[in-house]
Each structure stands twice: as C-alpha cells, then as structure tokens.
Specification:
Distance between the termini: 17 Å
Shape: elongated
Radius of gyration: 27 Å
Number of strands: 6
CATH topology of the largest domain: Ribosomal Protein L4, Chain: A
Largest sheet: 6 strands, mixed
Number of helices: 7
Order of helices and strands: EEHHHEHEHEHEH
Strand order of the largest sheet: 2-1-3-6-4-5
CATH class of the largest domain: Alpha Beta
Strand content: 5-15%
CATH architecture of the largest domain: 3-Layer(aba) Sandwich
C-alpha cells in the first residue's frame, strides 16, 4: 500500500510503499486482546497480601477445655472462623505475568500496525526533528490535528525533538524497539518516521 510522506509543517514530502505483511493484514481483535492482556498483566504489581493463620499475633493457648462446654471444640484463637483470625487461602504477593511466544508477539504488533492503517489513523513523516522549541512544535502538532498521538522513530530518537515534545500533552515518542501493541492502540494517531518504517520492517520480517 502507498501512503504520502509529510513534513511536520504539513507539506507533502513524497510517498512510501508500505509492506502489506505489516500494514495490510485484516486486524484480528482476539490477537490484539491477548497482546494487551499480556502487557497489562506484566505491569500488574501483584502486591496484594493478607495475614494467614501463621501470621496473626495471638497466643496458641487452647481457648477453653475440649469437652463439657456444650459448644464446638476449638484450640487456637488464630482460626479463620474467629474475628481477627487468620485469612484462609487469602491473596499472597505474586507475579501476574504469563508467557507469549516471540512469534505471536510479533504477529500482534503487525496486526496493531494494520489496524491503524485500515482505520486511516497512520501518518508517515519524513523525520522527527526540531530546533528544541516546545512552542513551535506544539503549534505544528495542533495544525496537524494530533490530539493523542504516538510517534515511533528509528533506532534512536532525536534528542532535540525529545526535549521539545516532553511537555506537549497527548504526544509520546518511542524508538522502534519500544513499539508495542498497547501504546499503539490507546492513541488516536500513530505517527511513524521513514527511519521507523525501515526499522520496523527489519524487526518484524
């Protein structure tokens, strides 16, 4: 598929042929869903915790005699049935992360790129560079209509451009190796530089 390449001032700077294997797939919601769940599960803290029977602070003395009370037989006040007793099988700190194969993760990224291309939310720019002026870049971004945009650059991101974009609300920049399904899908516009296109093609082929 062919797409126009623009500059940050909105002028057309040429065109580019996008690889159908990366940008021309029919997006599958089930694949994208699994990738987003995998990413969010890795981010989950998993620090929830409760005190079990061995953790609560009580005496282990038998609370009353075994027989003759007319009530149930009990030994320790730490039992889960008592108020302030230990929690039975409560949550413990753990990792929520699960595995996905490298091939499936790469497939998910290709489907995310294709989803943006199909929705008309993909923009290719000549290069992500700026003179380090946030105000000037913010004006260009506003003129282009990018309210919530993710910019993917090549192997590295231009330092001056990064500094200029740092305080612009709704604008995020990632190098090619940082490109991921969740960040791509949650933005309204996906912007990729020509260097980023080349690096993505090299990474995902």
């Amino acid at each position: 598929m062919k797409l126009d390449v623009i500059n940050l001032d909105g002028a057309v700077a040429g065109s580019i042929d996008l690889d159908e294997a990366l940008f021309g797939l029919e997006p599958r919601a089930d694949i994208l869903h699994r990738l987003v769940r995998w990413q969010r599960a890795k981010k989950q803290a998993g620090t929830h915790s409760t005190l079990g029977r061995a953790d609560v602070s009580y005496s282990t003395k038998k609370i009353y005699r075994q027989k003759g009370t007319g009530g149930a037989r009990h030994g320790s006040k730490k039992a889960p049935i008592f108020r302030h007793g230990g929690i039975y099988k409560g949550p413990v700190p753990r990792s929520h992360a699960h595995d996905l194969t490298k091939k499936f993760r790469a497939l998910g990224l290709r489907h995310a790129l294709s989803a943006k291309a199909k929705a008309g939310e993909l923009v290719v720019i000549e290069a992500a560079d700026a003179a380090g002026k946030t105000g000037a870049l913010a004006k260009q971004v506003k003129n282009l209509g990018w309210k919530r945009a993710l910019i993917i650059d090549g192997a590295t991101v231009n330092e001056a451009f990064m500094q200029a974009a740092r305080n612009i609300e709704g604008l995020d920049i990632l190098p090619t190796m940082g490109a991921n399904v969740y960040d791509i899908l949650k933005r309204d516009t996906l912007v990729i530089t020509k260097a980023g296109i080349e690096a993505l093609e090299a990474r995902l082929k």
